[in-house]
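Researcher: For the annotation table, I need structure tokens for Histidinol dehydrogenase. Please keep the output clean. Sequence:
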Amino acid sequence: MIVMRKLSYPRDRGEINNLLAGRGFAVADERTELVNDIINDVLNNGEQAVLKYTARFDGIELDGLLVSDEEFKDAYNKVGDDFISSLKKSIVNVREFHRKQLRQNWFTYKNSAMTGQIIKPLARVGAYVPGGRAAYPSSVVMTVIPALAAGVKEVVVVSPPDKEGRINPYTLVAAREAGVDEVYKIGGAQAIAALAYGTETIKGVDKIVGPGNIYVTLAKKAVFGVVDIDMLAGPSEVLILADSSGHPDYIAADLLSQAEHDPLAISVLITDSELLAEKVDKELALQLKGLNRKEIATTSINENGLIILVDDIKAGSELVNRFAPEHFELLVKEPFAILPEIDNAGAIFIGEYSSEPLGDYLAGPNHVLPTGGTARFASPLNTDDFIKKSSIIYYQKKDLASISDDIIQLAELEGLDGHANAVKIRFEGNEFND
């Protein structure tokens, strides 16, 4: 039975504050030690360790890690043309959206001095795609396409194999259509370690992106600094702000679209309409019956689902900013009047026909989004995540001379005589001439 917890704001401010404080990514249990042991083993023993953990955790002893051309061909034989057609539409939309994010080199001049910035793509990126029994071709598209749009030359995919030692065919086809040539049959912490440090077969990468379970997330945290990572992702979440104009059936369906992800997924409705809240509750119970992942969604809604009643939509928008949701749906009569008030959200879905799954698959914006309130300071995965910037400084003698006293003064104030001397020495005993 669905039991959606109901709170009122500001009456239940304290309980809501506690809920907000409890979100996010927690690392404080025995799994951290296990992950660190796996990473050290892969670092010291390479592929031997990777194969050992693949046998232990995935139940398959592999002869090799690299997916062969034959396996790609077999995957194409197993998927339908309709899937490939939909996949290609997704790739086109995601590519077009992310190409608009590309930055350019820039330079500025003051007299004969020049400063600026040059942009370079990362050389090699690894994308982690969950696997086993499940298929997540959309994760391939959302992690690979922005990297390639940014100019990354080498993008590799890792994904855990099934009990037959194969990668899901939909994942493989998505990888090939997206432009990936290297796919490796490994998952878990051992895959993250292999990408970070390299093995006899796998060349190390500069950055690791993509979602995974707690072991993958802990491993990404552990190797950060050796390589870059996209984020430490927590449970998926959706927050819907709706007034009396909202459709209860639409809202319930959108809440369940997140609840079916994971028992820890968070689905929240904020509304100023008590009648709408009651209707949504009833719709949840009705729609849940038809879901394949009924048990997961039920646990999620019962344990993490929440309806918050507010006095008005303005109070609701304030709560949205405090929650800083991964996915935010704005279902009110005049959404574009409220939109300027929303400061913190990973992705914003406006209107009743902009359901969250639209963003997951086909609209174009990335579905790798900040969770756990990190949308207060973090952004969706984008092309900036796959580039690096170098500052350019070019001064001639007269340019340096014009500010040398200022540099010397600031350096000496900080007690850094060597810094000051590095400027002084260029002018001592030399009469400056234009």
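Researcher: And a one-line annotation?
Model: The radius of gyration is 26 Å.
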